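Structure ticket #2291
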Amino acid sequence: REAEDANSAKSQFLANMSHELRTPLNAIIGYSEMLQEDAEDANQPGFVPDLEKIHAAGRHLLALINDILDLSKIEAGKMELYLERFDVRTVLDEVATTIRPLVEQNANQFELQVDDAVPQMHSDATRIRQVLLNLLSNACKFTERGTISLVVRGDRDEGASDRVILEVRDSGIGMTEDQLNRVFEAFAQAEATTASRYGGTGLGLAISRRFCQMLGGDLSAESEAGKGSTFTVRLPTEAPTGQPAAAPEPPDGVAAQGTGAGSAGTVLVIDDDVAVRNLMGRLLQKEGFRVHLADGGEAGLALAREIRPDVITLDVLMPQMDGWAVLTALKADHELAEIPVIMLTIVDEKNLGFALGASEYLTKPIDRERLAAVLKRYAGAGGGRPVLVVEDHAATRALLRRAAEAEGWEVREAENGRAALARVEEQRPEVILLDLMMPEMDGFEFLEALRAREEWQSIPVLVITAKDLTDEERQRLNGGVQRIVLKGAKDREALLAEVRELVAARAAV
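Resolution: structure written out below.
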């Protein structure tokens, strides 16, 4: 128990420290980008190289922080995998496009060789892409005027299951036997002369190997000093999760039901409990809804894409893929993101009921192009319309102000939640940019107070955070939740009223 408490304390410390470290990084990266633009506009190119170095150093430090957090999450068993079916060739082409500029920096040649027989995979494409980019960037760093190859082929192991083999080869400096023996140790680097010349944190390979092992495979290395290295990734085509191997067909637990044409609208019920599914189906059918039932997250997502329901009811506690994971996938799909979702839970916690309605999450350091795009999506173009920036860090407030004003917004500022409520009282903003970690009244408390006022409930709130959110915090903030309803007979009328209201709202759009 003491060991678990210590590990939890470490994870919490790292999550909080990530906020403290990313906040000044936000200013360093953001201002260096702006100063580069100002220098180019003022026709002073002499400043640009130094500003580029500052920007690169900030990005490098950010990558280090992210690596440490990834390693901590893996060790604590908190790293999540997002499994999907994808075409391997598409991922490889994306990786090749990303890595080519880095290859050319040291006058290297890049070769991509893909076996035509490579099968599709059901795995985490993001983690695989991260592993390959790490291996290829290392190859680029340690190779000059040489060749870097990514060779991919299908294979079948002794258990007769399909695998994909991905080899990253380079003709660079290679490694000694001693270096090879500790290449996958966290924070392990080459001898001092090599480390000082090439840099690095010694975390990338350790994290990459952990990712491969989480996906049911492994990462190995072969090398000879002065003759280059080969890193080999072996992954099963089906990641070991117990989830269906193929893209879900409607199985026994998924059925379309309804009365007539479902004149009241279409509702998708996602719940792993067959009794709850049947009860919900009968209840909603009686009210004239056309009902589709799904027995889990994967099947529910597939059915949502197929039928595009007016409303989705979603169980929170499900095996393999819980309700919050399904909700995240729904909101990441632009074709499904606008479908109202009602969460059903047997967990009676006050914090779970907030569902405060954050419209979007942005992570520090702020990507200005993404910020501009999100502002336009939720509140249209600027044109002098008011936006409220709620952030306790003065430099970050100024950075957000400049970014928003560049898009034509009229910006007002508040240093904490209490001051922000006063600003909203004075003038209703079109959109709010909200930091979570603030003194006096933090972002969570501000959102509770904001959503308590009916006339303010429709204001889009874009959460900006450098903090790694816990599951509870995500639940409190998630903008995809129209309501959280407790399972039970007493909520029957409340549920029906909610479904009717949401379907009517969708029909009116």
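Closing remark: Confidence is low (pLDDT under 50) at residues 190-199, 242-262, 346-358, 479-491.
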